Amino acid sequence: MPVSAVVTSQTLCRLDGPNGVGKSTLFRALLGISSNFSGSAQWSVSDTTFSGLLALREQGVIYMPQKGYSLRSLSVGELQGLLTSHPLRNPVRSRLFTFLDKFKDCRGRKIGELSGGEQQMYALLATLAQPGRFYLLDEPFRSIDPGHRVGLWDIFRDIFTKGRAGLILTD
Predict the structure, then answer these.
(1) Are 58 and 131 in contact (CB under 8 A)?
(2) Residue 167: beta bridge partners?
């Protein structure tokens, strides 16, 4: 069955549904990283049509997989340094600094020593630190406590309203 969607900048699209319904599989199909589907996915950014994961990244489509990044060997301080030195847009940079200030006590610890929710939070922040036009986030709040979700939504708000990016997420 053909699927078609249009997501523009400053758009938040949430894919919701029970476990096993295919939300993550749909992301992988859209990104061209699943061999279980025929057909193609085309993305258009700035009047350029392209496909393939590398081309997507080069055009500003940023993907965070459900079970993703292995940041375990970095210390919190090293990752914070990488995140805060990245050339982010001004509103996002200020939100990121404010959010990261809450975790000064963890700077010497390795990411792999943190709780699952803290590891997921840093993976999400590393994803959001990448300048992009569209972000595809597969279960970005998995294991993150409700209090930190509020702060992360503030960062989302800045990226997707002031930063003029589009967002598709599963939850």
Answers:
(1) no
(2) 12, 135
CB-side neighbour CA atoms (13 Å) of 49: 3
H helix intervals, 35-132: 53-58, 76-85, 90-100, 116-128
Residues in the chain: 171
The whole-model pTM stands at: 0.79
Tokens of 164: 């003029």
pLDDT digits (tens, 9 = 90+) for 150-171: 888 888 877 777 766 777 778 7
At residue 14, φ and ψ (nearest 5 deg) are: -110, 120
4-35 CB burial, b ≥16 within 10 A, e <16: eeeeeeeeeeebeeeeeeebbebbbbbbbeee
